[in-house]
Prior knowledge:
Low-confidence stretches: none
Helix content: over 70%
Shape: rod-shaped
Amino acid sequence: MRPRFTLIGVVVATYLLGLGVLAGVVIDRMLFDRHRSELLGRYEQALRQWHSYQMTLEKASTEQ
């Protein structure tokens, strides 16, 4: 009977370890996606400002 309990213990431990790793990967991906979205938002804003600045310079140069 002892080897059966040992086998069940190993199977349960392996299952819990796999579940923990999977949960860790999911949480890591969620945090990475949130960080990436914030970074891309700041990049888009900077790009819009740069294009606006370029258009203002171009408009000023054509008016002269």
